Amino acid sequence: MAAVRVEAVLAAAEEQEAEKRRSVTVEKELELEYDLGNLLAVDRNPPVALRGAGPRREELLRALARDNTQLLVSRLWELPVERAGGAGGPLVAQLPEPSFRLPREKPRPKPRPPTRWEQFARLKGIRRKKKTSLVWDEQAKEWRRRWGYRRAGGDPSRAWLAEVPAGADPDEDQFARLRREKRERVARNELNRLRNLARAHRAGSAVAAAPLHPTGHQDRDELRRVARVARVSTASLGRFQPRLPKESAEPPSRNAGKKRRFEPLLGNLAAERSRQLELLRDMGSKKPVLDITRAVNKQLRQDEAEAAAANKGKKQSKRGKRGRRQQRPGRSGKKSGGRRQPQQQKRAGGGTG
Amino acid sequence: FNLFCRKPKTKRAKRFLEKREPKLNENTKNAMLIKGGNANLTVTGVLKDIYAVKKPFAVLYKRKNITRPFEDQTSLEFFSRKSDCSLFLFGSHNKKRPNNLIIGRMFDYHVLDMIELGIEKFVSLKEIKSSKCPEGTKPMLIFAGDMFDVNEEYKRLKSLLIDFFRGPTVPSIRLAGLEYVLHFTAVDGKIYMRSYKVLLKKSGCKIPRIDLEEMGPSLDLVMRRTHLASDDLYKLSLKQPKGLKPKKKKNISRDVFGTTYGQIHMQKQDLSKLHTRKMKGLRKRRAEKSAEDGGATPKMPKSA
């Protein structure tokens, strides 16, 4: 008996709850998608009822809107709430972050590259010293700001005394010198600021094509390099490009502009054969590869040449161009004599490697 | 780019420029409402009503500007740069395209997306006699209809409309202040935009029952031409800067019962130098020890 009564009571309670909720529940085929951060709800159900409707359209639209709004508001009411502004304030719900992805207004902020000073400071480990904003001024006997309006050091334009420093010309106008130096400092700072800005701007947009544009200050080698790049930048890689009037008429070598040259794999078989045989012969012979006497002579001559260059630097050479030209054949002779050794070694190394 | 512009000399100018530069968390997007060459009553009415909805994040230009946004976008971009607005609504009217409305947005002061809509029916704020909600209310946005997910152009239109009407992003909202709802339905090739005022009625439970009262401007729109951004430009505009993602706290884990766990990493300890509790009673006394050792050993220092 009691059990039946309890069950009946529970069922009645549930019925009551359902009654209460009936006014706020809405039946939908597909669930809506919510983005509570934007107060947004998206209803994917196809609006079948509205397709044919003519005069009843407004009512149907309004009914649909009411249902959707009811669902959205139910969701919003489930958010965590608090009372804003103390006990008596309005009830406020905490909104989550908006999840619907919308495009930005402006592109992402790029971190600016460090200035020259910042790079140096990072390298050396120099950190910013925190400075007080006010400094005690002895003369004025009060706290003045470090720089700016009414700064601590007194007004520089009203300085009535400028000491002549120890090694300076006594007739020089010290005030003019101070003003000129300030102007130079300001100009130098402005130049550095513009350079830092240009560097930042250049880092942002890859301006790698700068050397290919003619400036007024390119030397012969740069221009030759640029001309070579321009010639090769055609669809047929420069094969059918007519030569410029003063350009040398040689086919472009594969090693143009590179410091190391690599021989092609199957080029000259005879040269390769001779190279390998020479290597084996050097390895098999008892004679040492390094000729001691020649190396010592070379070192001695190098020292003499350095000493001569140092002396030449000290006294202004009276010989002039003719004298230097007379010296040259001798020097080149020494160089070629000495060079034969390292070249041989290099080839030996190339053969084994 | 400021290389050839002088740097700002006043704090006010500096603040002005800082407000306009790209940031991590961006400002609320402003909209500019522009009248085209031949703008009739309907079109001007629409622009005025939308201005009323979007205040204070909109500027309404009163003079007519004779431009064609689909052909030449330079004047739009110039306006956007000057007034720092990234959304625009351009209304015009001619025989070929009557009651034309172009809604669009900008990225980096260049046109990103533009969609041309034709106004078939317009009921303005003044015609509907009812109480209005206060200016600047954040509206609830509801999109109904499967077209908004199926068709690419409708998808962009949905994104545009959300961008246009969503207002400032707020962390919390007053529940009693949810008064305004904008409902967009896509049916039969048309888009119906209706605005209602929300009345919260008592229901039996915590959640109130909603009743709607038609309030604001209602528009029946038809999609005409579109000028959508290419996929990669759109993807670029969607990219968010890295600083926005919250940093994940490492070394924190929870188990089923809610206990928080973390690992403590200690350095290697020299166990011989550990200081343990010293039991004074257990220490060997000097007399006992000398008796043990036979008295031959000298006094040894007490070891801990």
UniProtKB/TrEMBL annotation, chain A:
Kindly indicate whether the keyword Translocase belongs to this entry. no
Major place of residence? nucleus
Comp. bias regions, Basic residues? 312-338
Q: Which UniProt keywords apply?
A: Nucleus, Ribosome biogenesis
Gene Ontology biological process terms, A to Z: endonucleolytic cleavage in ITS1 to separate SSU-rRNA from 5.8S rRNA and LSU-rRNA from tricistronic rRNA transcript (SSU-rRNA, 5.8S rRNA, LSU-rRNA); ribosomal large subunit biogenesis
Keyword Nucleus in record: yes
Region (Disordered), start-end ranges: 87-116, 237-267, 303-353
Q: Which Pfam families match?
A: RRS1
Q: Which InterPro entries match?
A: Ribosom_reg
The protein's location, in the record's own words, is: Nucleus
Cellular component per GO, a single term: preribosome, large subunit precursor
The Swiss-Prot or TrEMBL record describes its family as follows: Belongs to the RRS1 family.
What PANTHER family does the record tag this protein with?
A: RIBOSOME BIOGENESIS REGULATORY PROTEIN (PTHR17602), RIBOSOME BIOGENESIS REGULATORY PROTEIN HOMOLOG (PTHR17602:SF4)
Q: What does this protein do?
A: Involved in ribosomal large subunit assembly.
Q: Output this protein's name.
A: Ribosome biogenesis regulatory protein
The organism is Elachura formosa
Ranked from the top, the taxonomy reads:
Eukaryota, Metazoa, Chordata, Craniata, Vertebrata
Gene responsible for this protein = Rrs1
From TrEMBL, chain B:
Q: Does the keyword Nucleus apply?
A: yes
The family line of this record is:
Belongs to the RPF2 family.
Q: Where is this region: Disordered?
A: 278-304
Any one Gene Ontology BP term: maturation of LSU-rRNA from tricistronic rRNA transcript (SSU-rRNA, 5.8S rRNA, LSU-rRNA)
* GO cellular component terms listed in the entry, alphabetical order: nucleolus
Compositionally biased tracts (Basic residues)? 278-287
Give one GO molecular function term.
rRNA binding
Q: Where in the cell is it found?
A: Nucleus, Nucleolus
Q: Which gene encodes it?
A: Rpf2
One Pfam family for this entry, by name? Brix
Q: Does the keyword Nucleus apply?
A: yes
Primary localization: nucleus
Q: Which PROSITE patterns match?
A: BRIX
Instruction: List each copy of the Brix domain by range.
Output: 29-232
InterPro entries in UniProt: Brix, Rpf2
Instruction: Identify this protein by name.
Output: Ribosome production factor 2 homolog
